[in-house]
Amino acid sequence: MGAQTIITEGHDPYRLPTGARPTRYDVRLRPSLDDASFSGEVRIKLDVERWIDELVLNAAELEIHGCQIDGIDASWELEESTERLFVRPSLSIAEGETTLVVQFDGVLNDKLRGFYRSTYVDDNGNAQVIATTQMESTDCRRAFPCWDEPEFKAVFGVTLDVADGLAAISNAPEIERSTSGGRTTIVFADTMVMSTYLVALVVGKLEATEAVDVDGTPLRVVHVPGKDHLTAFGLDVGAFCLRWFQDYYSLAYPGDKVDLVALPDFAAGAMENLGCITFRESLLLVDPETSTQSERQVVTDVVAHELAHMWFGDLVTMRWWNGIWLNEAFATFMEVAADEAYRPEWERWTSFGIERSVAFETDSLASTRPVEFEVRSPDDCEGMFDVLTYQKGGALLRMLEQYLGEDHFREGVSYYLRTHSYGNTETNDLWDAIEITTGEPVRRLMDSWIWQPGFPLVTATLTDIDGASAVVLDQRRFRFDDDAGKDDGGESPLWVVPVHVRNGDTITKVLLDAAQTAEPIVLSDPDGPVVVNAGGHGFFRVAYDSELRARLDRAALASLGTLERYNLVDDAWSATIAGRLSAAELLTFLEGFSDEREHTVWQAIVTALRGLSRLTDDAAFDAFQQRVRSLAGPALERLGEPTTGESDLAGKLRGLLTSTIGGLGGDLGVQARCRELFDTASHDPSQVDPELTAAATSVVATSGDAETYERMLAGIESGSTPQEQLRHLYALAEFDDEALIIRTCEFALSDAVKSQNAPFLIRLAIANQRHGPAAWSLVRDNWDEANDRFPSNTIVRMIDTVKLLNTPDLVDDVSAFFAEHPIDQAIKTMDQILERQRVNTALRTRESARFSIALTPHR
Ligand SMILES: [Zn+2]
């Protein structure tokens, strides 16, 4: 059962007919960086399955100059609305092999898709241009005419004709070059059989590191000149992951070489082009000495994620874009698994809880969607790149892996990849492969999670069976707004939930596939604590009855795993949003964690505190800040000053507590200390622990004035790494001054900020606690300008934070605006943002007064 089966060939204007299939492309492109244009010719070898009168392929924003079929001129027509090129010969084409040749011109656009232009200023102050590509999902057709659907796999032979002195890189290694008349022609080896969305071309003044030999595969980092000193970490991660994946999958790397290419302008984070992986600079180039653990972890995540795709995605590819979720979910799962192997001390599977929570947030809404979803148009496709695809999908795979056992899961994955190498698949093919190797009902289990929206709340209730203590589990859908679910007719959907329950030394594994467990779980330690979702990897929330909750006291907490404690805090915060726990009760509950020592748990506590701060009246705000300081202060004191040899996570926790106490807690002493640290680090970054530098940058902005703002601006220019530059840039959104926040938004809309970063700066400005509404209104008034400037996939991310604008007036304003200005490439995500804004507003309306009174009982 898949969305693809209901689309009939010939009736869907977005799908190409299958009568002719490309087997090989010879693509020759001649980019001209100075005038941002290119010309080219593509020669496509086709396997024609039956007599046909026309060839239908994809092309967009290209000027076609000629088409020939088997050497004879043919007429053509380019249909802009559906991005299709119809080529019609004077005589029908017979079955067998046919060659189509097309000549064309195009523009190197500034929209960061297809064949586009990226710019940077070199060390001598000269503007430099790079021509590069981003083909996924459906933009290869903007670089050359092609059968631009993942199922039409073919071999690509690329030739680039570039001005002398420029580097040129593609998926396969260079095999030949010749020079004449100021131009160099570079021929690349043939690729393996692959989809069009994986083709990559990069041309410009670029440098490459020496290749590292990874068991026979050369691995390099490619970058703009002058950044060689930031490449060692990425190379180390890349080499580790390439080996680790070959081992995990039991399959050799399918390409000939790997280049990791850092680009100054990139709309997504990174892209898994076979052998030529492209990245934002900040996600590949990093200085281990001056970066935070988060900054190194994100580089590790992204390098691992893209390398995981070389097999899962590139070697074996989804048949159609409805399968994109599995592609991305799997790479998300593998990035965390590879990180855990690379740096076990980072406890990456524990911190993945934080990302899973982001998926829970969206999936608690009535407007969520099933993970697998019908995709027809390019806009539908763009809409799939969301938290439900990546984070929920990745979390579901983790839950399955933990249920089956890591080795059994891995064997199934390896079997799947070996069976389907160079082919295309449906989601079921993976479940079937794992079912074959494990004998477990994988398809039944996973179908319940991917075809229905949402997730369950599992409630544990203490009971008594023949005098023995036991626990009954039941499930129903978790929602923030229970009224929104009334159209279900009151019946909750059911999931096949793998639940691990721990009591004493016993872990019981249950497959809860009905509304309630058939057999209660008898407790081996009748009075001891019971942990539902033991290990913490299940994609569900848990509620305990009052007796079971009372057993999870301070002493019991200490015996729980870190992810289990994280889940308790995260479940409590979501219970507050859903109206099952008051804000005051939540704060008291959080205060029970004052002995907590783990960063991930503190991250959940801080997220909840930030949420509570948005419910607090001005009159009660001082009292709230006092509570924040009392809760987090002792934890910061316990950590003391940074010491050599302390763990990365201890440093990270110190950073989090410092920014929380100095920012949210408004602590004057911490603010003063942060100003000192910021001053010292501005002169010599090596003098301050990077975690403290990052925290101080944020705190200084939160409590800073116009002069501080100027220093922050200067820091963007003078920052010596992409990470330092971004810390200063994003701190511009944290000032507590309306004029400065407006200035930040205007700055984001100017040429001074790269369009890959500007939408995220605006997103943070809208999230500003007191001046978000001013940022929103500026964006609203400059909506067309923002849409012109920024990559289309970033528009919805830019305004995601309007969900925090939690007053009825702003709900009306925001929803009226988007009714008039829909974001076509993100209709579903937009519905979710608007619903979440209503949920947040209901929360504030419900809690604000009584929470503020609870904070200041004597006012
Ligand atoms: Zn990916």
Task: Provide key terms for this protein.
alpha+beta, 10-stranded mixed sheet, 6-stranded mixed sheet, globular, 29 strands, binds zinc ion, 859 residues
Describe this structure in words.
This protein is α+β, with helices and mostly antiparallel strands and 859 residues long. The chain has 27 helices and 29 strands. The strands form 6 sheets. It has a 10-stranded mixed β-sheet with strand order 3-6-5-4-7-2-1-10-13-12, with no helix packed on it. Strands 15, 16, 17, 18, 19 and 20 form a 6-stranded mixed β-sheet that branches. It has a 4-stranded antiparallel β-sheet with strand order 8-9-14-11, with no helix packed on it. Helix 12 (562-577) runs antiparallel to helix 13, helix 12 packs parallel to helix 14 (599-613) and helix 13 runs antiparallel to helix 14. The longest helix has 29 residues, at 827-855. The termini are far apart. 51% of the residues are buried. Residues 272, 305, 309, 328, 331 line the site of zinc ion.
Give a brief outline of the structure:
With 859 residues, the protein is of the alpha+beta class. It contains 27 helices and 29 strands. The structure holds zinc ion.
Poorly predicted ranges (pLDDT <50, ≥5 residues)?
Answer: 1-10
Structural class: alpha+beta
**Ligand catalogue:** zinc ion
What gap, in angstroms, lies between the N and C termini? 62 Å
Considering DSSP H and I runs of 4 or more, what fraction of the residues is helical? 40-55%
Largest sheet: 10 strands, mixed
- Average pLDDT reading: 95
- The largest beta-sheet arranges its strands as 3-6-5-4-7-2-1-10-13-12
Give the oligomer, counting copies of the same chain as homo and different chains as hetero.
Answer: single chain
| Shape field | globular
Work out the helix count. Answer: 27
